[in-house]
Design goal:
Blueprint (H helix, E strand, L loop, with lengths): L4 H9 L15 H16 L3 E4 L5 E5 L6 E7 L12 H16 L8 E6 L12 H6 L18 H7 L16 E9 L4 H4 L4 E7 L1 E10 L3 E2 L11 H19 L2 E11 L5 E2 L2 E10 L2 H21 L3 E10 L2 E2 L2 H13 L4 E6 L5 H4 L4 E7 L15 H18 L6
Parallel strand pairs: 3-4, 3-5, 5-15, 6-14
Antiparallel strand pairs: 1-2, 2-4, 6-13, 6-15, 7-11, 7-12, 8-10, 9-11
Helix pairs in contact: 1-3, 3-11, 7-8, 9-11
Bound molecules: (2S)-amino(hydroxy)ethanoic acid and manganese (II) ion (2 copies).
Length: about 400
């Protein structure tokens, strides 16, 4: 039994849920409703709780003094997302705090919980917007970033009751000493190796791009094939060239998950194609080389189809190692609990890689059934959630038991 976790997961999944998948994007009513739901749960546990100027939910168990121990994840999702990515981490943290309160534990320093806003970057490509604001990154250049549904970020924020100019006020990293995040693995390794839990050694580097190719809109029947400047044909060349490059490299991933073609007539040669590239590498040198690879694939394809190019980076989060001492602490707790556990790198990006640039940060994984994620079929059974919650609770108890400098 996982205390309140299972019930909270079921309740939260209804917010932005359509019976099959979950859709909660930054600055939308659905994510705001989920954030407000979390604030209520935090108040019920006796914590101070607020939604900050960057849309993060922040709960504070103000105890003892000194730097806060921070634990959390995110509540936003990808389109047609699952019920566990991000949400399991936030609600496991909430359950850990409930258990610590229930046993009468008194932290020696503040224990904070965060649900970071827009970890996925679904609408604006502003991946990890909330955690970046929390650590004080300057995001001023994002003000006029236009969403895939054509809305400027500052406008979407205003409509949701937020002010882009107040985002810097969300920076509280100076009061934090360390960060922990529980997350589903979002891959098949734990299931294959029958791990109950895993300590994350490092997080993959992620680069995102918006690419716009322009050719010539024309008649699908009368335009000679050799005269066409077909933007979709060019985009297709890019997709396959990137895929082939990743297959031959073996240690990078590249994905194009969204493409919009204009004008969109079935009998019209596409004059414009806008698509989004997601390129990743765990090795720092490989990560550095991804930019040239993406630009080369786009340039070659555009030349073949005689297209113009507009390529704009949307986000960049370098490969990030997790803190060795916190990894050790998590491993010790997994061993003490008699769990079957291991060490894994993360092929998914996480808020922990933003926090880790400022404070000691670590993550632990629980298995994903069939390794599936970013899908309505994402699932982690209750009996596979509990070991993670127990380890997280024990780790927070240890981190909050001794006054640390
Ligand atoms: O894309 C990722 O790896 C994460 O889910 N944001
Ligand atoms: Mn995700
Ligand atoms: Mn996630």
């Amino acid at each position: 039994m996982t205390g309140m976790l299972d019930a909270w997961l079921d309740e939260l999944a209804l917010i932005g849920g359509n019976g099959r998948a979950v859709n909660r994007f930054a600055w939308t009513p659905e994510l705001l409703a989920a954030s407000r739901w979390l604030v209520q749960r935090l108040h019920e546990l006796g914590l101070e709780a607020e939604i900050d100027p960057a849309g993060n939910v922040l709960g504070r168990w103000q105890a003892g003094d000194g730097p806060a121990v921070l634990v959390g994840s995110h509540l936003d999702t990808v389109p047609e997302g699952g019920r566990f990515d991000g949400a399991l981490g936030v609600l496991s943290a909430l359950e850990a705090i409930r258990r610590l309160k229930d046993e009468g534990f008194e932290p020696a320093q503040p224990l904070w919980i965060a649900a970071f806003n827009d970890e996925e970057g679904t609408r604006f490509g502003t991946t990890m917007f909330g955690s970046a604001a929390f650590v004080g990154d300057d995001q001023a250049e994002l003000r006029d970033r236009v969403s895939t549904d054509g809305v400027p970020l500052s406008e979407a924020m205003r409509a949701a009751g937020f002010d882009f100019d107040l985002v810097p006020r969300a920076c509280l990293i100076g009061s934090v000493g360390c960060y922990l995040e529980l997350h589903i693995e979002q891959g098949p390794r734990m299931e294959l190796q029958r791990m109950d839990t895993a300590v994350v050694t490092g997080i993959v580097g992620v680069r995102g791009y918006r690419v716009e190719l322009r050719g010539e809109t024309n008649h699908a029947g009368t335009t000679p094939m050799e005269n066409r400047r077909d933007a979709l044909a060019g985009a297709s060349r890019v997709v396959l060239a990137l895929r082939d490059a990743a297959l031959s490299a073996g240690d990078i991933t590249v994905n194009v998950g969204r493409i919009d073609v204009q004008p969109g007539g079935t009998n019209v040669v596409p004059g414009t194609a806008v698509f989004f590239v997601d390129a990743r590498a765990a090795d720092p040198q490989r990560f550095a080389s991804l930019d040239a690879l993406v630009r080369e694939c786009v340039g070659t394809a555009a030349a073949q189809e005689r297209l113009t190019i507009e390529i704009s980076p949307t986000h960049e989060h370098p490969p990030t190692p997790m803190d060795p001492a916190l990894q050790q602490l998590l491993g010790d707790e997994m061993r003490a609990a008699g769990l079957t556990w291991g060490e894994l790198s993360s092929g998914a990006g996480h808020d922990a890689q933003v926090l880790a640039r400022h404070v000691a940060s670590a993550m632990l994984f629980v298995p994903s059934q069939g390794g599936i994620s970013h899908s309505p079929d994402e699932f982690t059974p209750s009996e596979q959630r509990e070991p993670g919650v127990a380890v997280l609770t024990a780790a927070l108890r240890k981190l909050c038991s001794t006054q640390r400098p």
